[in-house]
Design brief:
335 residues, alpha/beta, 12 helices, 9 strands, 13% strand
């Protein structure tokens, strides 16, 4: 299966098998090797530093990753809310998951800035199955305004995407190993697709598939940023949007923070979705914890008032359309 959208749609489709307060072990889990990120994107709450930003211990990673594979997890994302290319042992993490634990599919999403050819090669040689670039800017100026990083980094990211294709094709020719290459872009508003036409044209030849995502409100934390109107909850990708309730994320995908907490949410930037401490309990104990069961019951009833999910869908309004984004130049741009 080489289309990433097919995998995404399989995870976000909440079938009867998973509509339970105690669903089976999730097919997919994302694990946060580091909570640090070199971007300060307006649409992501990571830059708000609502929790500590550090790295996962390798000993914890090895224990929980093996435990999850033994329980039946099939797909491991070696990232969550941080930028995993900031983690020095990223290739070792991939190799351990593939060779020692036998995960069929190990995947990674990156903002691309630190994804140099040498680092990409190390990850692919370690067995990485999928590398996706979050590519959310039309030009250097929008890149600067979106990320808070100097505009000169924009062409570097373009170069890294193109280099990834060359590295992938070389490795495939030599060893037969195939790492899918993908890119996604966010529709901030009704004009972003048109704004990004030329930028997307430049990277599409280097990737196997490019797709679009709606603007998420990150559990309500970034709702309204720069005058934008996000979708409610996490509805998946554009072209296969899911209902905001019940939220698929609670049922079909796990999320583990760098300090070993199992989170119920794709966007747990402040720790409010903590469902269990994996330093003290097993993955499946946390997956079926009382708190997680109660939150799933509320989602299945499509009434999350009074729960930690409330703010994530509170701004849903089908009649309100996204407004064009006006990016204001920052007075100080991070290096």
């Amino acid at each position: 299966m080489r289309k990433i959208t097919e995998r995404i749609d399989r995870i976000t489709l909440l079938t009867d098998e998973w509509r339970s307060e105690a669903p089976p072990v999730p097919r997919s889990v994302k694990i946060e090797l580091t909570a640090r990120c070199d971007f300060k994107c307006f649409f992501c709450a990571s830059h708000m530093r609502l929790r500590d930003k550090s790295d996962m211990s390798q000993s914890f990673f090895k224990r929980v990753v093996r435990e999850m594979r033994d329980a039946g997890v099939e797909e491991l994302g070696v990232f969550y809310l941080g930028e995993s290319f900031l983690c020095s042992w990223l290739p070792e993490a991939i190799r351990y998951a593939k060779e020692e634990c036998g995960y069929p599919y190990v995947f990674l999403t990156t903002n691309g800035r630190m994804a140099t050819p040498d680092r990409i090669r190390a990850c692919m040689e370690a067995g990485l199955d999928s590398l996706k670039f979050s590519f959310n800017f039309a030009d250097p100026e929008q890149f600067r305004d979106v990320t808070g990083v100097k505009a000169s980094a924009y062409p570097e990211i373009i170069d890294h995407i193109k280099a990834a294709r060359a590295v992938r094709d070389e490795i495939h020719a030599k060893t037969g190993h195939w790492c899918g290459l993908y890119a996604s872009s966010i529709e901030y508003d009704g004009e972003q697709r048109e704004r990004m036409v030329e930028a997307v044209k430049e990277i599409v030849p280097a990737v196997d598939e490019h797709y679009w995502l709606p603007l998420y409100g990150q559990a309500g934390l970034t709702s309204g940023a720069k005058g934008t109107k996000p979708t409610a909850g996490n509805q998946g990708r554009v072209g296969a949007l899911r209902k905001p309730l019940p939220c698929w994320s609670l049922f079909t995908e796990g999320h583990i923070t760098y300090d070993g907490r199992l989170s119920a949410c794709c966007f747990d930037h402040d720790g409010r979705f903590d469902m269990g401490d994996l330093n003290r309990m097993s993955f499946m104990e946390a997956w079926h914890s009382d708190n997680f069961r109660a939150l799933r019951r509320a989602n299945l009833a499509e009434n999350v008032c009074g729960t930690v999910c409330e703010k994530c869908i509170a701004y849903e309004d089908a009649e309100v359309k996204p407004q064009p984004v006006t990016f204001v130049a920052r007075s100080a741009i991070a290096a």
